[in-house]
UniProtKB/TrEMBL annotation, chains A, B:
Native species: Hyphococcus lacteus
Name of the protein this chain belongs to: tRNA (cytidine/uridine-2'-O-)-methyltransferase TrmJ
Subunit text: Homodimer.
Sample GO molecular function, one term: methyltransferase activity
Family matches, as Gene3D superfamilies: 1.10.8.590, 3.40.1280.10
A GO BP entry: methylation
Catalytic activity: cytidine(32) in tRNA + S-adenosyl-L-methionine = 2'-O-methylcytidine(32) in tRNA + S-adenosyl-L-homocysteine + H(+); uridine(32) in tRNA + S-adenosyl-L-methionine = 2'-O-methyluridine(32) in tRNA + S-adenosyl-L-homocysteine + H(+)
Gene: trmJ
């Protein structure tokens, strides 16, 4: 399940490579402004790497840097922690960026466009494809981004949480933005049909269904004859709706045979 | 920022109401199969409530139920914890459901359609709008969903994580699915333009720009005259690109006046 930590000793190298031979292309940098708990920085690093991001910058982390707890929480994502850069001011952390979005729960305070995570990810993707360096600002645990930080941004990202229960921690906010980035970046979902899921051809299906009807006929199932067609159609629709695979059709033919043989041997 | 816990004493009542007067409509039930740590159950409850979900079912929680740690971690989402139902078997937990999806990192093992979180959320929304009761299965921390659990599902949901670093914990997986549900359910993002963001009318903008040109003219800015139009156009494009609001246009007129007055008083 998704809970298993699948560590890959090759991952750090692949993530760190920026020479075009790595698996990850250009991506936004996550900037944590005055984060407090090392655990939360570590959780951010994990969430980032889960979705293929590795550029992390910290502005005035409360407990200094490096931070043991961040490393411990990051677990397999230490590559992100190890390469994190520390800055004294938000302006310095984004000085080399062309486009910056700020995550905040108070979108109405600032005179900036407000984007959904999906819109923000698409905007970031477009800019990055255009060669721009981009960043996402996240505020600290206590009070989030101050207005003086938000004004550095070109747009605000607002996550559509339940207004009656809007608490999202730093790691969760980072996870959602990283997830939307991965989708905007065209990360192929694992959502491909397994080879065994190839549906049977109509010919195979008809052969199976014909076999079933034949045996049912022998068993006298369709008596009285006047309702035969109606019953056949209903039966066929039920099997058809299942979208049977080639293997399943073959297995079902075996089932029919077995049932018939079993009945004969009684 | 999104880290602030915004607790609303009215929330539990609103969430619990199923009489049509509450703020939350029908939604999928989250079923945790053999979860181990109470903290993770609590994190799931929080993630659910963050996105407006409240139906939680547990199959054989390792440490029994109720679990203090789950309650502590759930914080303001205790309503979800308090109403959680416990079952001995996965089949019992979903017996009243018409459509079930299973989250797993091993989509190729089962002969089921594999959906992205977005596709799954849309499928759930469609079924629920149709009056069907739906559930999402999540596996336990150690080994995820067993095949015997997955076969209860109609489809598999696979989160497109970085294959080189695919660890997502229970709470994170629940967060992403709940987030996609909220979007599929039409949760309005807070992404509405603030009233102050209303762009200025073209008339207001032209009046401001005319004012600027007038003052620049007085200052001899457009000498030599042959490049006047070109320079005016460039200047206008820059201001236009900013998408100035009514208030900003008004403020800028004040700026022009102040600059001119200041110059006169020198």
């Amino acid at each position: 399940m998704i809970d298993k930590t699948i560590t890959n000793p090759q991952a750090p190298g692949r993530v760190a490579r920026r020479d075009g031979r790595g698996t990850l292309g250009a991506a936004p940098i996550f900037v944590l402004v005055e984060p407090q708990m090392g655990e939360n920085i570590g959780a951010c690093a994990r969430a980032m790497l889960n979705f293929g991001l590795s550029g992390l910058r910290l502005v005035n982390p409360r407990d200094g840097w490096p931070n043991e707890r961040a490393g411990a929480m990051a677990a397999g994502a230490t590559i992100v922690i190890d390469q994190a850069q520390v800055f004294d001011a938000t302006a310095d952390a984004i000085a080399d960026c062309q486009y910056v979005v700020a995550t905040t729960a108070r979108p109405r305070e600032a005179l900036l466009p407000v984007l959904t995570p999906n819109e923000a990810a698409n905007a970031l993707k477009k800019r990055i494809s255009n060669g721009e360096k981009c960043a996402v600002l996240f505020g600290g645990e206590r009070s989030g981004l101050a207005t003086k930080d938000v004004v550095h941004a070109d747009a605000i990202v607002s996550i559509p949480v339940n207004p009656a229960f809007a608490s999202l921690n730093l790691g969760q906010a980072a996870l959602l933005i990283a997830y939307e980035w991965a989708i905007a970046d065209g990360r192929e979902a694992v959502a491909v049909a397994a080879p065994d899921l190839m549906p049977a051809t109509k010919e195979d299906f008809e052969r199976f269904f014909g076999h079933l009807i034949e045996e049912l006929d022998r068993a006298g199932y369709f008596y009285p004859e006047d309702r035969r067609l109606n019953r056949q159609h209903k039966l066929k629709a039920a099997f058809q709706r299942a979208g049977l695979t080639e293997k399943e059709v073959s297995a079902l033919r075996g089932v029919i045979k077995a049932l018939v043989m079993g009945a004969k041997n009684k």
